[in-house]
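How a chain folds remains the central question behind the approach discussed here. No coordinates are needed to read the tokens, only the vocabulary itself. For completeness, the protein is quoted in full, as a sequence line and a line of structure tokens:
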Amino acid sequence: MARLRVLGENPPPPRGNGENQLRELRDYLTRLKDELEFLLTHLGEDNFAESLATWVTDTGKSIEDINTALAGKQDTLTFDDTPTSGSDNPVKSGGIYDELQRKSNPNILTNAYFIGGGSQLGEGSFPINQRGQSSYTVAGYCIDRWYSQRTTHTLTLQSGCIHWERVNNGSYNPLFYQPVKVVQGEVYTFSILYRTTFRKLRETFSGSYMPEASDWTLYSTTATVSGASANIGIQDMSYNQGLDDTGKYIEIKAIKLELGSEQTLAHQENGAWVLNEIPDYGRELYECQRYLKQVINWSDIYAARSDTTNLYFFIPGATMARGPDTLTSQQVYFYSGSNYYTITDDVAFTRQYSGIRGSMPKGSIPNNLGGTLAFASAVFISAE
């Protein structure tokens, strides 16, 4: 067990007569008591460093005294200005430094971690992929909340990333992005963990070009936003530069947009990039279902006849981000007791506090008849 001692000095050696020795020891213990009381009173305060500096000045201690007292200890703090990994100092090598590297600010983007192969493989696998395809060659939404702008590119879900590849040299510079709301005038940081063979690729946050990277690379940039909304993602600029990049691609593990001037997407451990967090799957799914809700075919939905014109029904779930789009020419079956009715018509939706309200012309269904409703095929109710 280490000896207790006052910062910068050892307990007094025996000298003089017994009375002098006791006096010196008493003085020493009084100073030790004062220092312990200070630590117990102030340790854990947000301004601990400032309080310590003031106390050091008031008591006549010096930084040299404190460094001397802490030298060789593995359970004490450091006064180094710029801690870096690889040091014997615990702040640098194991404790506080590593925790600082692993901190994670909230990600303003939804469904932006692409490391699990997709939710079509089973619940808990990122990214959320309610549409269920393993690849998309579309001009529209693909995996939840993400938009691929042209059919010149194909998005493929892989076991540890997503793969976005130019499949033909059409005359476009398409984006892969997510639309988000931001606060005008605030500072944001965009970061992406990727590797790519594209020769002219830029991120859409600041419009800067990203370097080619054959191995996993973390790119980040900070800027003050000038608008209230933004399309956050990447853009293949090869056509604009006169390049045929057919067959070239980018692979992405994660993308982040966060408030502030520091990236907290990932850190390095033993030379490899490691994500600072894996988000909660349930929370991410909930956020995605605010924009897209899948209704499985033949699943029962309770419905009730409420007037002489329409059939109304309710689908519980996340509150949609806005009023969902109308579904055209949908075939549904309405069951009441031993009777059933077939309707083919447009279905309109309104968002409710805890779900979606649907309505459609009732056709031949009698007035004020209750029952269940089922869609003949799976449908996606979209607010994207």
Summary: The CA atoms of residues 185 and 341 lie 56 Å apart. DSSP finds six helices and 22 strands in the chain. The longest strand covers residues 339-352. The chain has three domains: 1-71, 119-283, 290-382.
